[in-house]
Structures are given as structure tokens and as C-alpha cells.
Amino acid sequence: MRRRAVCLLLCAALLLGLGLLPGQARAATPLFVAVNDNILPLSTQASYTGGSYYLPYSVFNALGVYYSYLSDSSTALLYAGTTKYFFDLQNGGCQDGDDNTYSASAMLRGGTVCVPVKFICDHFGLVWSYLTGSEYGDILRVRNGAAVISDKNFPAAASSAMRWELGQAGGSSPSAAPTSKPTATPKPSPTPDKSTVRVRICFAGLPDASALDLLDANGVKACFFVTADDVRQNADELRRIAGSGHKLGVLLDPADCAGSFGETAALLFEAAHIDTVLCASVGGDEETCAAFARERGLCFVAGDLTLSDDLRAVTSALAERTAAADIRVVCGTDTAAPLGELLGYLKASKFDIEPMLEVGAG
Questions:
Q1: What is the mean pLDDT of the chain?
Q2: Which domains does the chain have, with CATH numbers?
Q3: Mind listing the pLDDT tens digit for each residue in 210-229?
Q4: Which residue pairs, CB below 8 angstroms and at least 24 apart, start in 83-91?
Q5: Which residues pair with 142 in a beta bridge?
């Protein structure tokens, strides 16, 4: 018995000497979260459950993986382009966009959706690592190709930012605040609150099905301006658009406003029983089209921002808006990718995304 007790004591001492069990953070120090080369505020907490680390799903937004919470079905959606995973918060598990099922589950922590780090990284092409840091704490780091600092050098580079965060949180009293943010690990800028800015989204033409899925998953209602040929060739898709609560309008031909509106409006009514007064124009004499709409009592929509493959021009313009913006998406071969990024930006910045209405649309 004495020999057995001695062995148990030696084992306990060995475990204490080793410090961590695999996958567990040190109890005496906090576990920081880092995205690429940025240390996040301590308010962003990781959790360790069932052998897996979990992070708030909003953390991945900075890495191009966007999110949405569908409260009616207790479902959390994470997506990037056409890659989508739906997490069932009530029953566990998840499905991808092709209805394949997985055992990975999300959970609610303090009202925040948290998702398994390894699963998200594996399925969205990201990399995660657990880094033993300095005396200020360890680091759970998630990165993509934009990271500059290696995992080996990151704990040392991040130490001043970690010390500053501890001081801000009251966890320690640093002797002096840094005179400037560490260049290696700048703190992320706070997300602006643009909840007073109204945004409406419209499409010139018809996007592919994945773009419609993104709109539906985010609960965003848009307006689709189409030509007579669009209606003839895509009647089923137009019925789906109308059934999802989106608006439909006519894409005018500046050379024949009356003819293009009359033909397209008649086909829309025949295909989907839509009687529209909405119209728009792309790449032509918009003033001629707007004058035609005024004469006929129609609502002409002039999208003042146009979304292309380069999202930066649109987000830069939106950051300066204080009242309203109409964003026009010109449909091409890959509409879903820039649209997904746009919706993620709009939701993260809390823009007021409104549907297009026949009254006051111009």
C-alpha cells in the first residue's frame, strides 16, 4: 500500500511539473484569441468542451467566413462563397449545402453561437494552432494566407498587446501603457455602427441559385430587374424569387423605354402574376429612363453604388454614408462570392437592410 501511495504521489507531481494536459489552457493565465497577426480583446473568449475548442462564430468573419443565425429554426449558418454549413443548435450536428451530414455541433454560450474551431478551419481552408505564450497567457490562433508572422515568433510579437489587454481588463497593472500599438499585433478597429443608414439591394439581371440562397439565409429581401428574355428563359426561377418575398421590376432599354417596359411587364404577369411599377436601367441613358418613369407614374431605381468583383470601392463608399444607399449588383458569372462578402460586411456593421418598395423607390 505504501509503495502504491508513493507511486500516485510521483504521478501527481509529474503531471504538475508538466503543467498542461494536452489541449488544456493553463488555469493561472488567460487564453487569448488571435486572428492572423491580431490579438483580439479578452472579451472574445474560447471554450474547451468535449476535447474541442470553440469560438464565437463572428470571429471567422475577419477571415472571409460569414455567419447568420436563423432564430426560427435554431440554425447557425457559416458560409464563404458557395461553401455553406448549417448547424442545428437544438438537435446537434450540421449539414452542408449538398445535405451531407456531420457530427460537429455548435453551441450557445451566453447567447452567442460558438462553433468548433477545427471543423471550421478544416472545411474553409483555415489553419488553427494553440501557442504557449509568455507570462501573460496562451494563444488560440486562427489564420489564413494573410498572416505575416509565423506561429514560432507570434507569442513574442504579441506579448505587448497581451499585456495591454490584461491592463485594460484589470487583470494586471502594467507599469506604463504602450506609447503606440505594437506594429506586429495591432488591435482591430472597432466595427462601426451604421444602424441609422438604410441600404437597399437590387440586381440587374438574374444571379445564380447560390446568390439566392445567400439572400434567403440572411433574411435579406432584394429587387430583381429583368428583361423580357430573362422572363422567357427563367420563369421557374422568377416564381421562386417572387415566392421568397423579393420584388421584381423591369430593366428598361433606353432606346425603347415604352416597348421594353410593356413587353417585360406583361410577361412577368403571365409568368408569376406580378404587376410591377418598378424599373431601372444599366449602361444606357438613365435620365431618359427616369423621365419615362416619371411620365408613367412608375418608380425608377437608380442604384448609386455598383457591386463588382472588387468590394473595396463599395465598402469605402458605404463607410461614408450617413443616410441611405442603393446598391446595384450587375449579375455575372460569379455573383455569389462578392455578394456573400457584401452581406457579411453589412451585417457586421449593422446597416439597416430594407426591402425595395414601390413607394419612394426612386
A1: 80
A2: 18-169 (3.30.457.10), 198-353 (3.20.20.370)
A3: 788 778 877 889 999 999 99
A4: 83/123, 83/124, 84/213, 84/217, 85/120, 85/123, 87/113, 87/115, 89/113
A5: 35, 128
